[in-house]
Amino acid sequence: MFMIELVGIEKHFEGQVVVHPLSLTIKEGEFLTLLGPSGCGKTTILRMIAGFEQPSKGEILLAGEQVTELAPNQRDLNLVFQHYALFPHMTVEDNIAFGLKMKKMSLKEQKERIAEAVAMTQLTALTARYPHQLSGGQQQRVAIARAIANKPKVLLLDEPLGALDLQLRKNLQSELKHLQRTLGITFVYVTHDQEEAMMLSDRIVILNQGKVEQIGTPREIYAAPKTLFAATFVGENNVFSTPEGLFTVRPEKLRPVRGELEARKHGVIQDVLYLGNVHKLTVQLDNEPMTVTIALDFTDERPWQIGERIGVNWNQRDEVAIGS
Amino acid sequence: MRKSKLMLAPVLLWLSIFLLIPMLIVVVISFTQRDTLGNVVFSFSLEGYKTFFDSLYLGIYWDTLVLSVLTTVICLLVSYPLAYYIANAPAKMQKWGLILITIPFWINFLIRTYAWVLLLRTQGVVNTILMHLGWIQDPIQMLYTKGAVLLGMVYNFIPFMVLPIYVALEQMDKRLLDAASDLGASRWKAFRYITLPQSKSGIMTGAVLVYVSTTGMFVVTDILGGAKSMMISNIIQSQYLGARNWPFGSALSVIFVITSLILIMLFNRAMQSKADRAKEGRA
Fold this sequence. Notes:
The structure holds two protein chains of two kinds.
Chain A: E1 2-13, E2 16-27, E3 31-35, H1 42-50, E4 57-62, E5 65-66, E6 77-80, H2 92-102, H3 107-120, H4 136-148, E7 154-158, H5 166-183, E8 186-191, H6 194-200, E9 203-208, E10 211-216, H7 218-223, H8 228-233, E11 238-242, E12 245-249, E13 255-257, E14 265-274, E15 278-285, E16 291-297, E17 309-313, E18 320-322
Parallel strand pairs in A: 3-8, 3-9, 6-7, 7-8
Antiparallel strand pairs in A: 1-2, 1-4, 4-5, 9-10, 11-12, 12-18, 13-17, 14-15, 14-17, 15-16
Helix pairs in contact in A: 2-3, 2-4, 3-4
Chain B: H1 2-7, H2 9-30, E1 33-34, E2 40-41, H3 47-52, H4 55-87, H5 91-102, H6 109-120, H7 125-132, H8 146-171, H9 175-182, H10 187-198, H11 200-216, H12 219-225, H13 232-241, H14 246-271, H15 274-282
Antiparallel strand pairs in B: 1-2
Helix pairs in contact in B: 2-14, 4-8, 4-11, 6-12, 8-11, 8-12, 9-10, 11-14, 13-14
């Protein structure tokens, strides 16, 4: 069953197209990510689904029902805001209870829902605290608990981890994924962090300047990018141009060879980066204005030197032809 | 900790010189006597306080309390919608709204208050218009009534209420309203549960400013209330300057300051939520 259907939605703002016509269906229980750089329209799309923005054209269906014209408080979905937007004058418990109170739920039921939500987000010990007494990560959890307590059909998340430091992000990413699997709720997630998108999503929508570049599973997007933008935005990539068009080869698919052995390209090592599980060579190609990056795994123990001349090889099957 | 205390020193010094010491002098004088010439004689006496319990003064004391509280309440009822409207207007309109609110302050306070005399007196603008319209036969006595004093107070102190409420509303994170709406709140519910509690600090500041200013204001009472309306502040003024009975004037001041402090404390207690107390507990 389709949980969300976007039918040709567009957003114009002061004569400018913020979101180009977009049609997209999101399945029940799916974790879908809108990925793109800032200003690509991903947050606008999310806000249109939530009801804070009206599409200039097109329709939005939630579980088969037309919601295009409905106000946010009439849509059975919840949004986790980028800066959490916790109510500062309410305790954690009252924040979580707010949506339940608005639904006029009985006190007994409220208590149950709150207990459930705080248990899932590991906030049980903190229910009497106020937002200003919590760390960033804890505030983030409250924002999620406040949303999931309503048991919405869809949970929208607008860069929910954007304000946190790296280590905390990593922890919360796996928590989020786990939560989504447990709840089985459809998640629509907005981020500019491609690694985060790859890790969490069932499907990714890559957006650039209000246009969809590619929709696909993380594997499809990594292995078979369709556009130059998709090829270079997600993961590192080497782009080669030939008279027939462009093709890309991922750094881990390139192989360096010593001496004047047979090779597709030749060049000089500019830099050697040691990263633990991999090391990377940056190679300036002969007669071409470009460098390529080669990723070698930890089993390669050959001593690569800066300034060394090497050949660069790859298998033809690892070439990915892309449109412009 | 020690360093932060040290940094408070200039403020404390300022407060001691300009607030605490004068207050102490007033308190001391309130327990003294005066001689026949009106000089303060420094021997202990409760004469000033005894005089207060005269029914005449108790009545004025009560009138003052009622008028001050009423002024505060009316100012709040008028100012909140005004401040809300300004705070939610486009940025350019906000600037103009604030200028319009503060413009009366550019004109001398006495002139502004005398203008009300011209409007309200028996041959004044309001009565003339009403008679021309045929709504009334004889002019209504508006000037020199308690109503006129109330009007003058409210008129003068509305900006004191509008500005703090505006600041509180303007500083509120508007995304909280999006969050409330997302969680199912109607616009009214979002106002009731989010905006109103978030603007409480502004209401508290405004209420205290208006209340304290009203209790100390004797010029408005003089001009618009005539001889019939009297407030404690008028009595205090006349005891110091006219009757030269400083001990009694001081006793009245002390009593009224204490009353005001108690009222403000009760008000704060009533307005303070658990959240505020939690915040203070942390600090």
